[in-house]
């Protein structure tokens, strides 16, 4: 998958950053919607202009959302995909029946690299997602930041050796997230061989504000690695 590694720039909070990500070559942009623990979260109303923009296919990231709220989000924003930060097999089954044209992505969170992980449980979650009809999984990192557990947007790496094996055996396209930045993105793509990378803080000037220089440096490295 390395030759075609895609890039999703997440945590977009404004139209200018959406434009910058697209101009530098990102394949997707991600917007966090009504997620209480995220400093980059927008309301459905605030997110509307970004989802209505022509820049790139836009993914809505949600956490512990009700099906009623999910329906409101989809009807209001018309996202390319919905990415669930919490376990959502039942929601995915229901949503795929009603919204077959919208992709459903599932984040699967691993602990930071220095902590133990229950590999059989992670593998079970992957197959649960596949059977529910998910289109893609994102292997990300969950970590406690300032006393609060955050699912994504942590800037922390998981165990990439484990993720490499999970990606290799995954029945779905798999993206890698967590602690990726311009200095390690080439290593991440070469070693893990994901279908794509998904990152947020690694290309920020400050939370919710993207850095043009970091975006440009990241995409330069991705293009080099994809050309090998």
From TrEMBL:
<keyword id="KW-0028">Amino-acid biosynthesis</keyword>
<dbReference type="InterPro" id="IPR013785">
    <property type="entry name" value="Aldolase_TIM"/>
</dbReference>
<dbReference type="GO" id="GO:0000162">
    <property type="term" value="P:L-tryptophan biosynthetic process"/>
</dbReference>
<dbReference type="GO" id="GO:0004640">
    <property type="term" value="F:phosphoribosylanthranilate isomerase activity"/>
</dbReference>
<keyword id="KW-0822">Tryptophan biosynthesis</keyword>
<keyword id="KW-0057">Aromatic amino acid biosynthesis</keyword>
<protein>
    <recommendedName>
        <fullName>N-(5'-phosphoribosyl)anthranilate isomerase</fullName>
        <ecNumber>5.3.1.24</ecNumber>
    </recommendedName>
</protein>
<dbReference type="Pfam" id="PF00697">
    <property type="entry name" value="PRAI"/>
</dbReference>
<comment type="pathway">
    <text>Amino-acid biosynthesis; L-tryptophan biosynthesis; L-tryptophan from chorismate: step 3/5.</text>
</comment>
<dbReference type="InterPro" id="IPR044643">
    <property type="entry name" value="TrpF_fam"/>
</dbReference>
<comment type="similarity">
    <text>Belongs to the TrpF family.</text>
</comment>
<feature type="domain" description="N-(5'phosphoribosyl) anthranilate isomerase (PRAI)">
    <location>
        <begin position="7"/>
        <end position="219"/>
    </location>
</feature>
<dbReference type="InterPro" id="IPR011060">
    <property type="entry name" value="RibuloseP-bd_barrel"/>
</dbReference>
<keyword id="KW-0413">Isomerase</keyword>
<dbReference type="InterPro" id="IPR001240">
    <property type="entry name" value="PRAI_dom"/>
</dbReference>
């Amino acid at each position: 998958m390395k030759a075609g590694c895609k890039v999703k720039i997440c945590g977009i909070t404004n139209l200018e950053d959406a434009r910058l990500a697209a101009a530098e070559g990102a394949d997707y942009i991600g917007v966090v919607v009504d997620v209480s623990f995220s400093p980059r979260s927008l309301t459905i109303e605030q997110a509307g202009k970004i989802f209505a923009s022509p820049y790139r296919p836009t993914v809505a990231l949600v956490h512990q959302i009700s099906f009623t709220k999910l329906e409101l989000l989809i009807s209001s924003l018309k996202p390319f995909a919905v990415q669930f930060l919490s376990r959502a097999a039942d929601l995915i089954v229901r949503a795929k029946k009603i919204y077959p044209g919208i992709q459903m992505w599932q984040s699967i969170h691993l602990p930071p690299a220095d902590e133990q992980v229950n590999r059989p449980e992670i593998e079970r979650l992957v197959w649960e997602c596949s059977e529910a009809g998910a289109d893609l999984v994102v292997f990300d990192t969950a970590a406690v930041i300032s006393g609060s557990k955050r699912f994504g947007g942590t800037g922390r790496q998981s165990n990439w050796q484990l993720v490499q094996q999970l990606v290799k055996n995954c029945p779905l396209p798999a993206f890698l997230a967590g602690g990726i930045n311009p200095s390690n993105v080439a290593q991440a793509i070469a070693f893990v061989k994901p279908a794509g990378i998904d990152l947020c803080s690694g290309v920020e000037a400050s939370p919710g504000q993207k850095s043009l220089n970091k975006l440009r440096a990241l995409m330069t490295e991705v293009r080099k690695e994809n050309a090998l």
